[in-house]
Design goal:
By secondary structure, this protein is of the alpha+beta class. It is built from four helices and 29 strands. The protein is globular, with a radius of gyration of 34 Å. The relative contact order is 0.10. Its main location: nucleus. Keywords: Chromatin regulator, Nucleus, Repeat, WD repeat.
């Protein structure tokens, strides 16, 4: 019997081998990605930083350069240094082509594509302001008007930064670090009923399993507490002025109503048990009944809160746990996810109606061959909602941000110490039409192949049936022949005639 020490050593060895294999796969995928960059992006700039960043967040305002050929955009980023006292939150800027602006008369990037380890010009990357922090920032939420940034740090303190001054306000309640922050929406309605976020109230959720509601101008103590979770709070998302959802390490998704009286643990109005821990939750900014969750199941699950017990659709594409979800403000039908597989995936929900079989789906009565065949077919057919993949990182992605006023401009940071600023390729009308034609041709080809496969299966079934019928006929003939033989054997022979009565008398 192997000793526990040997089993532990074997487990460590297997983990190390798996990590090495995963690193090798990631590096190979990165090499392929580098070759396809010109086909995938209008613009991409990659900066190698001194330390990994845990946070990146665009600010909404930008300004044109003096010559009118560029725009200066600003963003916040945090550092994660070995010495925690060296951590900081930085306000930085970068100059990009003016063609990126929403009111530009031309489309496309027009800027160079810089990817390490090639030489990178960092002259247009500037640090404008730096705030020292005593611990790393785990989460950051920018107020809707861009004037205030909230950061939830490793020491459990929430800092509110006034970005137009050096003023910093601290909110102290949580005893442990936290990753969950969100601003409360007001009572106004968007196109689908959801309100706009305001600068007045916000929610925080910590590893202490507690959720606190804060008034921005009252930092001394929370105005309401929610203690119904029994594990670390992983994420919070508000639906409207009164409703918010949360996911936790206790494997539950919960929804609270702020109008409920703050008594004791304040039970949720809805509680959903999950098979695996969910790391993130995000309500649609315009449709307040639509929300998505994702986590350790590697799947993005879409829900209607009016029928919350089961997701109405699951999105498959990640190969590891998902850490973050965001709806694209420039495309209301697009949700974006990033995971531990170093990828950022774009999902187009306009394709929800297309036929797709979940990879996990299987029939209990299916044979091993049928199950293998089904899995092979599914592996070769991606989810039709998967629209775009950003594969520029070689380590875990810690955060990404969608610019609120510059169309389809993204920023991402990871443990690989990379800051990437990028804009996916914009197709012209002609290119879109060509792509649609190619997709239609591909669908027709798949349909023809499916029809041919079905015909072949039908022919095989008919051949099998015919073979069975022949076998049955053969068996029937053999049985008939045997029966006739038995009848013949039971009849008297013609050579041995039965003696007549006269013969019997003569004998006497």
């Amino acid at each position: 019997m192997p000793s526990p020490t040997n089993e532990w050593a074997q487990a460590e060895k297997e983990i190390a081998q798996n990590e090495q294999l995963q690193a090798k796969i990631t590096n190979e995928e990165f090499k392929i990605w580098k070759k396809t960059v010109p086909l995938l992006y209008d613009l991409i700039h990659t900066f190698a930083l001194d330390h990994p960043s845990t946070i990146v967040q665009w600010l909404p305002k930008y300004q044109k350069t003096h010559d009118g050929n560029g725009i200066e955009v600003q963003f916040l980023r945090s550092s994660n240094t070995i010495n925690v006292l060296d951590n900081s939150l930085e306000l930085a800027s970068i100059t990009l082509p003016a063609t990126l602006a929403a009111n530009s008369s031309t489309s496309g990037g027009g800027g160079g594509i810089d990817i390490p380890p090639d030489g990178i010009d960092t002259s247009n990357f500037k640090i404008l302001t730096k705030w020292k922090q005593n611990s790393v920032a785990n989460a950051l939420k920018l107020s809707p008007d861009g004037s205030t940034a909230l950061s939830f740090n490793g020491d459990g303190i929430i800092h509110a930064y006034n970005l137009s001054s050096d003023k910093v306000v601290d909110y102290k309640y949580h005893k442990q670090s936290g990753f969950a922050l969100d601003w409360i929406k007001n009572g106004g309605s968007g196109a689908g009923g959801a309100g706009e976020s305001t600068n007045e109230k916000f929610l925080s959720g910590g590893l202490d399993s507690q959720i606190a509601l804060w008034q921005l101008d009252k930092p001394s103590t929370p105005i309401q507490l929610f203690k119904s979770h029994h594990g670390a709070i992983n994420d919070i998302s508000t639906s409207d002025v009164n409703i918010f959802g949360s996911v936790s390490d206790d494997s539950t998704t919960q929804f609270h109503d702020l109008r409920a009286p703050s008594i004791g643990d304040t039970n949720p109005v809805i509680k959903l048990e999950n098979k695996l821990i969910q790391n993130c939750i995000e309500f649609h900014p315009q449709i307040n009944t639509l929300y998505a969750t994702a986590g350790k199941d590697n799947v993005v699950s879409l829900y209607d809160i009016r029928n919350y017990k089961e997701p109405f659709r699951k999105l498959f594409g990640h190969n590891a746990a998902i850490r973050q979800l965001k709806w694209d403000p420039w495309s209301p039908s697009t949700i974006i996810s990033c995971g531990l597989d170093s990828r950022i995936l774009f999902w187009n929900l306009d394709n929800l109606e297309e036929d797709y079989t979940y990879p996990e789906t299987s029939s209990s009565g299916a044979s091993a061959a049928e199950t293998t065949k089904r899995k092979t077919q599914q592996a070769s057919k991606p989810d039709p909602c998967l629209q775009y993949v950003h594969g520029g990182h070689v380590g875990r992605i810690n955060d990404f941000s969608v610019h609120p006023t510059v169309p389809s401009l993204f920023a991402s940071v990871g443990n690989d110490r990379l800051l990437e600023i990028w804009k996916p390729k914009t197709l012209s009308v002609e290119e879109e039409e060509e792509e649609e034609e190619e997709e239609e041709e591909e669908k027709e080809k798949e349909k023809e192949e499916g029809d041919q496969e079905q015909e072949q299966e039908q022919e095989q079934e008919e051949a099998q049936e015919e073979s069975k019928e022949k076998e049955h006929d053969k068996v029937d003939k053999e049985k008939s022949s045997e029966a006739e033989s038995e009848v013949d054997a039971s009849k008297p022979s013609k050579d041995k005639e039965v003696p007549s009565s006269q013969d019997v008398e003569m004998t006497d």
